[in-house]
Amino acid sequence: MPFINIFLSGSELSHDQKEQLFHQTTELMHEVMHKKKELTSVRIQCSESCDWAIGSRLMNEVKERAVYMDIKVTEGTNTAAEKSEMIKQSILMLKHVVGPIAEASYVVIHDIAGDSWGYDGLTQQARAQGQS
């Protein structure tokens, strides 16, 4: 049950770019992190380049986009190697879909305790224990 927020500086992405990000992020979560596609949620949000700075330099002064990809998964469901590979593959995917990105673009994976989140009215912990 991953939830992924992708924040980007700069102008709005094209419909095709958004579709690629939705599809490829879901595929990566399935292939690398072994998550169910049908439970993977992806949200994309663009903000004005003048509202984002790296090293005090506004992103509207450079040709790259800044990116922050925030991934939430249930604690204990992925290994360090899987998370490392997800971070690597996510950056490659982002560069391919949106073009040049700033070196200080980040992918952060949050391990959320199973009793602290869920979907369809059940926590992940309750779901793992077979409760309904």
Features:
two-stranded antiparallel ribbon, 132 residues, 3 helices, single chain, 8 strands, four-stranded mixed β-sheet
Strand content: 25-35%
CATH topology: Macrophage Migration Inhibitory Factor
Mean pLDDT: 95
Which percent range fits the helix content? 25-40%
Q: CATH superfamily name? A: Macrophage Migration Inhibitory Factor
Q: In total, how many domains does the architecture comprise?
A: 1
Characterize the quaternary organization of these chains.
single chain
Main sheet: strand order:
2-1-5-6
Secondary-structure element order, as H and E? EHEEEEHEEEH
Describe the global form: elongated
Distance between the termini: 17 Å
Q: What is the CATH architecture term?
A: 2-Layer Sandwich
Q: What gyration radius follows from the Cα positions, in whole Å? A: 16 Å
* CATH hierarchy class name: Alpha Beta
Q: Enumerate how many helices there are, as a single number.
A: 3
Largest sheet: 4 strands, mixed
Topology:
Layout: E1 3-9, H1 15-31, E2 41-47, E3 53-54, E4 57-58, E5 67-74, H2 80-98, E6 106-112, E7 118-119, E8 122-123, H3 124-128
Parallel strand pairs: 1-2, 5-6
Antiparallel strand pairs: 1-5, 3-4, 7-8
Helix pairs in contact: 1-2
